[in-house]
Automatic annotation (TrEMBL):
Species in which this protein is naturally found: Merluccius polli (Benguela hake)
Pfam families membership: 6PGD (PF00393), NAD_binding_2 (PF03446)
SMART domains: 6PGD (SM01350)
Subunit details: Homodimer.
Name of the protein described by the UniProt record: 6-phosphogluconate dehydrogenase, decarboxylating
Family: Belongs to the 6-phosphogluconate dehydrogenase family.
Catalytic activity entry: 6-phospho-D-gluconate + NADP(+) = D-ribulose 5-phosphate + CO2 + NADPH
């Protein structure tokens, strides 16, 4: 931005002469709370932002209220917005994922020139981002799909940003992105080609689903097994936040537990136990199935939300379905509370190990070059899953850039070993008490499956070959499909394709 631009920005935004001659550094479309906060964030860092919304009255309201006294300018139309931008033009879309993104792109394309940049900052599905990258490349326009995490406060004061797409766009947006990111952490860097940025954001959101469900299961054990009251639980989570579990989600859980409504009673018990979701956790689980990666914990976290949504059905079922009778906890309360903490920590390690397994598999599928340590740092500040824990993941990949699984790193294998007895006690006690723990239990099952050199899949393969001639391999002859005529009545012809 030159000196003339800076001098003009000091004039009141209602000065129409200034508006007509202004040249904005970047435009943002979509003035919901995230969009407004990112506009104000960019303004705070010295950038002139042109704001636009499909409902133009929202632009006027924004300029007269939240953006009053700032350098933010508005546009009456997309053509007006484009005319106020420096070249190459940089335009951020913060609109609902899906058709709305395509609609705005279609309207923008005729107004743009070679080398202009469109940035999708919404929670778009990564395949859509890849499709848009390829389509716009044919038109000689640059496209970036960027994950944005941190919620409303993060958007205003420093989000985590995960950009991917056309690498040629990065030099033109890098300074803006890295100035508005969370400060004190390197939580914004280029991720990779095409849909890589949105894929990484999707996995982040899936891990967020897992983290939240794990905390909920710990809360359930504390409440219904240990019969702790809300203030006791809040204190426990506060204490946990001074340990390896130090994180944003643990911190806010303590605050939620002790929060009281206007009548003086705790608010949490009044909230209906039916969880919503916007789809990114589901996308993660679907991708895991598609690429054959056992991301079991995130899948169970999604299903837990689905089960919670059956509130009326569950109320009806509770009247006729019984659980363990007379099973009351009789052990040491403080000791079991520590078991729960360690079970939470061990399960969290499994969740992140699975998430990075999925990132690694996607990189193979699409030819992406992902920096896993850098991704951990992108998540360590500004985003919802920010935690001290992520620094340990960065250190693991620093030790071994080709690390296949976090569980194979000594720090994490030692941590799980330290937690293992507590983890098993927490899970077994919860089962005996009839407490649903889908993520605690699937995490432990994954760990036990991963550490076994032999699983009962040999029987499964024999079954498949018995009824469908799907073949199997012998331990002594890996890679050679074999079919057996198990009954003497079947043929010797095997299935035409072999899938292990």
């Amino acid at each position: 931005m030159n000196a003339d631009d800076l001098s003009q920005t000091r004039h009141p935004i209602i000065n129409t002469t200034v508006l007509s001659t202004h040249r904005a550094d970047i435009a943002l479309i979509g003035l919901a709370v995230m969009g407004q906060n990112i506009v104000l964030n960019m303004n705070d860092h010295g950038y002139v932002v042109c704001a636009f919304n499909r409902t133009v009255s929202k632009v006027h309201d924004f300029l007269q209220n939240e953006a009053k006294g700032t350098k933010v300018i508005g546009a009456e139309s997309l053509k007006d917005m484009v005319s106020k931008l420096k070249k190459p033009r940089r335009i951020i879309l913060l609109v609902k994922a899906g058709q709305a993104v395509d609609d705005f792109i279609d309207k923008l394309v005729p107004l743009l020139e070679v080398g202009d940049i469109i940035i999708d900052g919404g929670n778009s599905e990564y395949r859509d981002t890849t499709r848009r990258c390829r389509s716009l490349q044919e038109k000689k326009l640059l496209f970036v799909g960027s994950g944005v995490s941190g919620g409303e406060e993060g958007a205003r004061y420093g989000p985590s940003l995960m950009p991917g797409g056309h690498i040629e766009a990065w030099p033109h947006i890098k300074d803006i992105f890295q100035s508005i990111r969370c400060q004190g952490e390197p939580c914004c860097d280029w991720v990779g080609d095409e849909g890589a940025g949105h894929f990484v954001k999707m996995v982040h959101n899936g891990i967020e689903y897992g983290d939240m469900q794990l905390i909920c299961e710990a809360y359930h054990l504390m409440k219904d097994v240990l019969n702790m009251d809300h203030d006791e639980m809040a204190e426990a989570f506060n204490n946990w936040n001074k340990t390896e579990l130090d994180s944003f989600l643990i911190e806010i859980t303590a605050n939620i537990l002790k929060f009281r409504d206007s009548d003086g009673a705790h608010l949490l018990p009044k909230i209906r136990d039916s969880a919503g979701q916007k789809g990114t956790g589901k996308w993660t689980a679907i991708s895991a199935l598609e690429y054959g990666t056992p991301v079991t914990l995130i899948g169970e976290a999604v299903f837990a939300r689905c089960l919670s949504s059956l509130k009326d059905e569950r109320v009806e079922a509770s009247r006729s379905l019984s659980g363990p009778q007379g099973a009351k906890f009789s052990g040491n309360k403080a000791s079991f509370l520590e078991d729960i903490r360690k079970a939470l920590y061990a399960s969290k390690i499994i969740s992140y190990a699975q998430g990075f397994m999925l990132l690694r598999q996607a990189a193979k599928e699409f030819g992406w070059v992902l920096n896993y340590g850098a991704i951990a740092l992108m998540w360590r500040g500004g985003c919802i899953i920010r935690s001290v824990f992520l620094g340990k993941i960065k250190e693991a990949f620093d030790r071994d850039g080709e690390l296949q699984n976090l569980l194979l790193d000594k720090f994490f294998s030692d941590a799980v070993q330290d937690c293992q007895a507590s983890w098993r006690r927490a899970v077994s006690s919860g089962v005996q008490q009839g407490i649903p723990m889908p993520c605690f239990t699937t995490a432990l099952s994954f760990y036990d499956g991963y550490r076994h050199d032999t699983l009962p899949a040999n029987l499964l393969q024999a079954q498949r070959d018995y009824f469908g001639a799907h073949t199997y391999e012998l331990l002594s002859k890996p890679g050679q499909p074999i079919h057996t005529n198990w009954t003497g009545h079947g043929g010797n012809v095997s299935s035409s394709s072999y899938n292990a």
